[in-house]
Write a structure and sequence with these properties.
alpha+beta
Length: 227
């Protein structure tokens, strides 16, 4: 069975979301296993003191926002409703780029929700800072996917990039609208086309020729001798 363009985009969206969830959960599992020893371990340096890996238990939302506040579930519910509404309205005509942003946001949200329902906190481990000047919140793969998805979604709408694909126009009943289609004329046979062209040229040449003058009547000379 051949999938429509909309369903193929949905499959890619689901695959991208699943990839984010798997990578997020595997990295968190490794972080907990590595840093969760009783004696603890020092952070792992990736780029000196600027980018390190550490183990943080975050009870807030992404990037440790609203940590310890129950209102975070309200914002999570609002975000899910907005993405769900956008997807439902553009489910048939949404472009691949648009649905890819949905996949990133959905995968990141589910990845963090798995942590929250399983252990009441989210595992964060990526720490970016400039010592003495800037200290960014600790985050994880799910947070990164959500951020990239939101930024890409905003750019799609802000730049006017088409967010819809070449889906069929639909009427009020939801069925494809074919009222604008017209029947194309049947192609003419080559022999018939040549014959018609010859007739057209003949008619044109006849119409362009000067009209023939009628023969003048012969007048009898009265002085001629009659034999």
């Amino acid at each position: 069975m051949k999938l429509s363009l909309a369903r193929r985009n949905d499959a890619i969206m689901a695959g991208l979301a699943l990839t984010v969830i798997v990578v997020d959960q595997l990295t968190k599992l490794w972080i907990v296993h590595y840093f969760g020893v009783p004696e603890g371990r020092a952070p792992i340096s990736l780029v000196g003191p600027i980018l390190t890996l550490d183990y943080i238990q975050n009870t807030g939302v992404a990037f440790s926002l609203l940590e310890g506040q129950s209102v975070l579930f309200f914002f999570i519910a609002i975000a899910v409703m907005v993405i769900g509404t956008l997807y439902w309205r553009l489910r048939e005509t949404g472009s691949l780029a648009l649905k890819a942003t949905f996949g990133l946001i959905l995968g990141g949200a589910v990845g963090n929700l798995i942590d929250r329902f399983r252990q009441a906190y989210v595992v964060d481990f990526v720490h970016f800072q400039i010592p003495g000047h800037f200290n960014f919140a600790v985050f994880n793969v799910a947070d990164s996917a959500i951020t990239l998805g939101v930024i890409a979604l905003a750019l799609l709408f802000w730049r006017g990039t088409p967010v819809t694909g070449a889906g069929p126009s639909r009427g009020a009943s939801g069925a494809p609208d074919t009222s604008t289609e017209t029947d194309a004329p049947a192609p003419r046979d080559d022999a018939s086309a040549r014959s018609a062209s010859q007739r057209d040229r003949l008619a044109l040449s006849e119409s362009a020729a000067p009209p023939r003058s009628a023969a003048a009547p012969r007048v009898r000379n009265p002085w001629a001798r009659v034999k």
